[in-house]
Structure formats: structure tokens, C-alpha cells
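Re-running the complex after MR caught last week's input typo. The corrected sequence lines follow. Everything else is unchanged.
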Amino acid sequence: MASDLVYVYAVAEAPVPDLDGLTGIAGRPVHAITGDGAHWAAAGQVPGDEFGESALVSNLEDLTWLARTAREHHGVVDELGHRSVLVPLALATVYHHEDGVRAMLTDRADSFTGLFDRLRGRAEWGVKAFAGAPQPQARADRPSSGADYLRRRRAALSNAARDDDAASAAAEELHRVACDLAVAGRRHRLHAAELTGRPGTMVLNGAYLVEEADRDGWCAAIDAAITGSTLTVEVTGPWVPYSFAGDER
Amino acid sequence: MSDTVRWSSPGVQQRRPEPRQQSGTDLADILERVLDKGIVIAGDIQVNLLDIELLTIKIRLVVASVDRAKEMGIDWWERDPTLSAGRGDLEQENARLRERVERLERALPDGAAGNGARPGRDGRRAAAGRTDPPDRDAPRRRNPRTAPRRPARDRSEG
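Corrected-run output:
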């Protein structure tokens, strides 16, 4: 039986809030590891036979394990987001001993200080926009000739291109509006249409860092921008600012 | 942050913040964030999430299947996602379509069936033109039901 390891969920700004009753991965309690600075790490013991290097590699390939662990990780981060200014860590940041975590807190103290200044009082919002599904061809009759076929094909392509351009322009505009009242905005990788399970093509996958004080204004601006838009838009938030916690990457 | 809301257009006017729920859609959102965002700090156990190619593919399948996940409940990913994604249906549809294409090709005048139909490429076929009876050389054709697959030269001609 491998010995327990130390899993770090997030690094947060002091003071340490009440962590009583907060549990994370494998139902283990979450506790604070404090360095010598103004920061602490939210950590928990995890089973070594699940989070050791080789076990971790194969577990990450197991969707059931991954889904459960991701939820548990996020659950802790999300709950702590209420209580502290924090920087969420990517999934599966694991140490052998708490000493390693303390050393990390010390080594990165300056960078954490900078991140906390950036994130304090702000939350992340997500905006995903999808272009409408392509219109089915009105004319189902067969082309009368090769030239007719080519003509139709050209028309279909140019209609599709026009729709794509319009959707891109609408996405640009939505992103601009979302950035307007936000401290920062990022466009994340778009998900391929066949993978989102939606009829339309994803044209915007944005994350926006919004001041708590501007929340209502930002939501209202997005509402106004997407009402009557040709795009289908999904807004989620507030999130702990995952997308703004890293270095600029 | 437990007051996370979700709203969408169209129908944005009826927007109502929904209480946070552990739904399939949430899972996709969560995975996107905890795997791809968040600060990456090298712990003692070194697993680069981005190095695991299969992981990425499967995550995308998770994202792909959120609507289905909602319909099916939470246990959908316990089955192999590549098998659960309607593969049987696809094979059936494929067979139906193949049969239909072959039926259509038989009905078409010779030379118009896609391969070798370009003028000048194959003098005999081009000259045969569209006035030929559709089944002029039907006896020479392979029976598609008994032929396991079309001969390779048919494809290379086109």
C-alpha cells in the first residue's frame, strides 16, 4: 500500500478561513499549508496508489475517475472561492510531503502576490457562441446539367461563406462587448462542431474577468448584445478565475 | 462561487438564474477549466496533462456527449465512448447508403456513374454518351451483392 500524497487544490491569500467540514478528493478533509509568506495552500491527503506517477497516468485516462476527481477538485476550489482570494491550480498537482508545498509557496511568493492583486474582487464569466445550423437546401430536385450542378455548388459555397463571415463578425462584436466592461478577456480554443453535440459551429469560446461591482452591468450588456443575435449564446458564471490564474499562455 | 448561473439565447428575455447543479454540461465546463486552465505548478509527481493524447481525445468526447449525458443520466461514460456513440447505427446507415449508391449507378447511363465519366479521358465511355440504354453493358458489371468490394482499378480511374 503506497503512502499518502499531498494534493494541492489552490493557493490563497491569508488569512486562512475556517476549513472545518470541507472535504475534497476521496472525501479527505482539506487543510491549510502555510508558508512563510502571506499565502497558504489548500491541500489534502490523497491515496498514493491512485495519485502516484504511473497510477495517475492511467487514472487520467479513466473517464469515470477523471470526472469524479475533476468535480472534487472543482468543488474545493469553488467553495474556497467564496472565502478567499485564490489561484486555482491545474488538476493533479501532487507532492510527496508538505515540505515541498511550503518550498513552492516560498519560491513563488512574488508571482502569487501579483496574481492576487489581479484577481481580488473579480470573477470569471464564460461566453460560448454558436452559429446557426446551416439551412437545408430548398431545392431537392436534381441538377439539370453539369453546369447547373456547378452553379448550385458555387451558390451553396458562397452562401456558406457569407454565413460564416456573418457569424464571425457577430462573434467579434460579442467578444468586444464582453471585453468592454471586463478587466480582461480571453478567447479559448473553439470546440469542433461534431464534438460539442450542437447543431451550430462554435464561433466564440470566451472567458472574461469581471469586477464584482460591474457584474450586473456586464450581464446586462451581454443580454443586450445577444438578444436578437443570430448566434446561440451560452453564458456561465461566476467562476473562480481559472482562465486568468496562469501566466499569459 | 456557488451562485454560478447559466443562461442562453434565444429566449434570453426569460432568463432565470439556475441554481448550480452537477449536470453533464457542468462537467464539460469543469473539465475544460481544471485541465486546461488554472496555474500549472510542477509538483513532485510529474504528469503533464497536455502530454496525454488519449486524455485530450476523451475529454473532447466528454464535451461532445454532454447532451446525451443529460438524457442518459450520469453513467453514460462507463461504456466505451467510441462504442456508445451510435456506431451500430452508422454502420447500418453506411450499408444502406452503399446499396443506394450502387442502385443509382446501375440506373445511370453508362459513363455517368462517377468514375471515368470525364470526356476525353476514356474515349469509349465518352463516345458512348447518354443516349445508350442504361443497361447496355450491364452483364459485364459485377453483382454488387456478391462482390465484397469494388475493384481498385475502378477507383483509380476516377
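None of the earlier attempt is carried over here. Chain A touches chain B through 68 residues (CB under 8 Å). Helices of chain A lie at 48-51, 53-60, 63-81, 98-107, 109-119, 146-180, 193-196, 215-226.
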